[in-house]
Amino acid sequence: MAPPIARSPHPLPLLLQRTRRPDQSGARAWTPREGAVVVRLPRRGRANERGAGRRGGARRTMAAAAGAPTAAPGRARRGAPMYSKELTSKKRDEFEDILEERRLSSDLRYAMKCYTPVIYKGLSPCKPNALKSAVLQSEQVQYVIKQLAKETGESVDIIQEEAMEILDEMGHSMQLGAVRFFAFTLSKIFKQLFQRVCVNEEGMQRLQHAIQEHPVVLLPSHRSYIDFLMLSYLLYTYDLALPVIAAGIDFLGMKIVGELLRRAGAFFMRRSFGGNRLYWAVFAEYVKTMLRSGYAPIEFFLEGTRSRTAKTLTPKFGLLSIVMEPFFKREVFDTYLVPISISYERILEESLYAYELLGVPKPKESTSGLLKARRILSDNFGTIHIYVGQPVSLRTLASGRINRCPYNLVPRHLPQKPSEDIQEFVSDVAYKMELLQIENMVLSPWVLVSAVLLQNLPAMDFEVLIEKTLWLKGLTQTFGGFIEWPDNLCAKKAVVSGLTLHSNIACLVDGRVVLNDKGLEDGAIGEVVFRRALAILMCATYRNQLLNVFVRPSLVAIALQMTRSFRKEEVYSCFSFLRDIFSEEFIFFPGISLKDFEEGCFLLTKCDAIHTSQQEVYPTDKGSIIVSFLSAMFRPFMEAYQLIFRYLSKEAKETFTEKQFIPGVRNFVFQLLEKGNTQCYEALSSDMQKNALAALAQVGAVKKKKMSNGFTYSVNQEAVNKVLDMFDTKIPVQKPVAARL
Amino acid sequence: RQELLKWNGWGYNDSKFIFNKKGQVEFTGKRYRLGGMVLPTFKEWILKTFGASLEHKTTSRASLNVNDVPPSIVNEQFLQDLRATKISYSQDAEDRVFRAHGHCLHEIFVLREGMFKRIPDIVVWPVCHEDVVKIVELACKHNVCIIPFGGGTSVSSALECPEEEKRTIVSLDTSQMNRILWIDEKNLTACVEAGIVGQDLEKQLAESGFCTGHEPDSMEFSSLGGWVATRASGMKKNIYGNIEDLVIHIKMVTPRGIVEKNCQVPRMSTGPDIHHFIMGSEGTLGVVTEVTIKIRPVPEYQKYGSVVFPNFERGVACLREVAKQRCAPASIRLVDNAQFQFGHALKPQVASIFTSFLDGLKKFYITKFKGFDPNILCVATLLFEGDREKVLQHEKQVYDIATKFGGLAAGEDNGQRGYMLTFVIAYLRDLGLDYYVIGESFETSVPWDRVLDLCRNVKERIVRECKEKGVQFAPLSTCRVTQTYDAGACVYFYFAFNYRGISDPIHVYEQIERAAREEILANGGSLSHHHGVGKLRKRWMKESISDVGLGMLRSVKEYVDPNNIFGNKNLL
């Protein structure tokens, strides 16, 4: 046997080289094919060298560890479970600040720079209008048009016209001019708003690779309007193909801005179009055409809307199943799904969100609203971290999962309801991607501070806070949380800088940290409750960022307390009950309750909080601190759900809509708060109220019925009472905090 | 005939690719148009495509080592009874090994470097239908296993003996049943013994001015019975039809007795056509002994042609249009760019400066004047047959369609060379094997709308799998559309790679081929268009024809051959 020929396993060393065109001549080893992957590091001329100087060898090893996108995580063998979290501490890429260079050189020159992004192989560029007419003429859309014409008796031309209107409303019209305009203004704005915008460069390089290989779908988390602006800005900065972004139609309500966004690559989808077959067909085909041709990366938010609570929302499946279909039908070889985690040290819309959660309606998107909001420009919003995750190959995910070929027996252009298999797969993928987002969310020290603070309201000793924060940092890291805590920053400084940044939420008074809930000095009792709730919800927004990291061990801890038994079976059954009840609140991969339980136990064992044996789970002596901290962390949810269930069991009408439910439960809780019968301010959050209702619907305690104008709900008293009993009898009664004062 | 053929490779002993003294590739022998010609650019193509090197060479054993061959263990009573029938037989090792395999890569590899675990114990040569009846009767009586053997060109592991078969295995070689029994000019049919080899059949029919027009790529070696048993397809099916269209009547000897019809008619409505139990039965039910087949007068005129397309997509679109208008010539094939380059590399040394100048001019016209990218363009080869006048008319029609899809006529010569290559290409594997390159072809059929996606995805899958499995050089992964139908096309893939540095190349090869087949199925392609299932593709049968479908086939097998006399274990 001849000796193997030396060959580097991955083309990564190329990454660090400058532009190189493929060399067509010479022996055709693998390289020419990969040589086509022209890799440049456009932006980072100087900054990169600086970075390399600073961190030296470390950076290089990171690059080597990053691997090519094909080596995606979960490159599971056939049949292996699709999601399994790596419990050993994960090595993550390092960050680079992209604003640093913007502060050093001209924004105008930057906006006018030569922009020649790398593109998908074999792509012939196509104008937005050509795209639209391709969609209109596609078999898929034409088929639906003809069907509708047949059914309604309307003429084909009129429906065609309608389709054209939909396309015009929907379609983006990306123009370099608009992009440059944004590049310029966003540079100015971002520099005003943020201290740093940090990006993992290895992630960008992986993305660059991925874009050339297969169609790419970008799946960022959604916390703020800044998200998609920032992401496009980032791709422009790195000379990558700009994404087309699925945006809510409400943006079109904004004069000029809507059109500007359209030119920067946004396309607009109506919020609900379930019943409109023409709209669905046109929309789906529009997205798929862009994907199939590799026209541009497609970006949308799995969460569907901005999370008002900074907690990841349960995924929506519609768009995801659209972008996955070309692969199912083998119209593309593969599709890359790229989870992107965008974490804000301080969320731009924080107070807006809190108002909204308390039922003060969200202002409609309008240009004047945007202009009014410009006063926030004078404020400081800290650092943004953007972590571009490993591209996940859809083909790898599907291998062994989708065996039968449901699309083989029907022409591919006919609209077809996905089989149950496929629906389940889409849902699994959605959860997997959200869990990957969560894994790489950056947690700032302030997140820890607020988690501690919320357990010690209304005020706590500064020194104790520092001590507790530091303790929580260790625990969070044990649980796999991704904390960005500068190496040699002492805890005190970290807490102080958090307090400074979030002075609107809490401040330091006489050596004690106090929540800013005063507002008007002597308002009515209602006003006091409202102010307090506002401050707590804002604070909770930050604590919430920890919850998905903590939820598994915490639910085990709560289950331990609730069952007052050490038998594993009982603890697990309680855990499983809680997991179901909170399935809308936190992100759990569907159907792996036992694995989640094991993960929770493992993490608790890792921090010496519990011991487990074959049959038993019991807390250790020193573990009680951790166990009670964890259960306290989730207590607001336990209590709020209890209140909401009580409302449903006692006060709610027989059938009601969500619109009736929210104010009803809000008044109910508000009155309890006013009377001092509860301290659970978070129960006022409409997000939690909706989640609780959805969870009950999920477990069958509430019947959800589709009506012409939305859903109506009817309570199954018996079932709700049963759930409530679980909570009532088992939740250890907590004395009102006030009593301690 | 066995003496004319290679024992460890494809085709005739005297025909093969070699590196001559000047280090250029040359094709030996006089049987093919390429014979004796020097192919100056071919060596470079090989080196470039596979990263092969002339220094790294493997050599096959020069001849069979008789000591390695599993001994022949024959049921004594069966042997006695067989002797009594006077049917000739042999227990010679070489005879038995020769019939122990088809032409799958792994089989050839075993011949070159190892030995089969199980081979036939005895070879019998019946000379007529009655002989076969006697042999089958004896086999039933003594419970021995029969594996029918025709031309031995199977590429589905159909001829391999099941390792676990404990009974005596009889290889029933039909090669001595090779007569044309009669020709019926009024009905244009001929009754032929099933062992006749394709080219002999055509030669003999031609003496009376007829042909069958059935020309699979293996027609030099494959037999009529084999075609029936595998549902074969011929290159010129557009005029003459595939085997199922050509066959009028089949006589088959089974353990239950002889199956045949009462008349020789163009069509009958008498329940499901029993011919369709036989065609594609892959030797699991019995031995096809006599076939009545349609014949046609030898065509007056033949003309080759070729068309260059700017890219594969346009080419496929053109073929689709040709199929739609139902004006496909006798054969129309579209090769992708990689195969075009391969064909190009096989151009023999040009005789004069003038031709070389002309070639240059042509190239200039196509690439510079018409703007075709030589790394993207693809070529269709055409074969017209029939009346001279009609051929010319037909030709014009097809070229007119081609023009609409950006096609440029590229001359008769290119077309003819394309068809000649299909016969010669099979010899190439043996050259590759000498230099650490292994390869194989496989085929499928697919609806028109999925042709492009399937071709792209399967080629890509092959490349990826190779990379994943540690293959050091990018493989050759190429395809061509070889047949057009109303509702779809037949696609043929070639796949080869340099296996230096891999310890178990055959295993790696099989994994990749399997992945490619999975990809085909996922893309809406069929398990096989004409190669058959054999043992190689059995695992996908259930998925292909459903549980019930498989049960239907099983119940036929159970009725016809309850003791599994025809125990080659193919198909089911």
Automatic annotation (TrEMBL), chain B:
Keyword Acetylation: yes
GO biological process terms, semicolon-separated: ether lipid biosynthetic process
Subcellular location: Peroxisome membrane
GO MF assignments: alkylglycerone-phosphate synthase activity; FAD binding
Positions annotated as active site in the UniProt record: 492
Gene Ontology cellular component annotations, sorted alphabetically: peroxisomal membrane
Pathway(s) of this molecule: Lipid metabolism; Glycerolipid metabolism; ether lipid biosynthesis
Enzyme Commission number: 2.5.1.26
Alphabetized PANTHER family for the sequence: ALKYLDIHYDROXYACETONEPHOSPHATE SYNTHASE, PEROXISOMAL
Protein's recorded name: Alkylglycerone-phosphate synthase
Organism the protein comes from: Dryobates pubescens (Downy woodpecker)
Upper taxonomic lineage: Eukaryota, Metazoa, Chordata, Craniata, Vertebrata
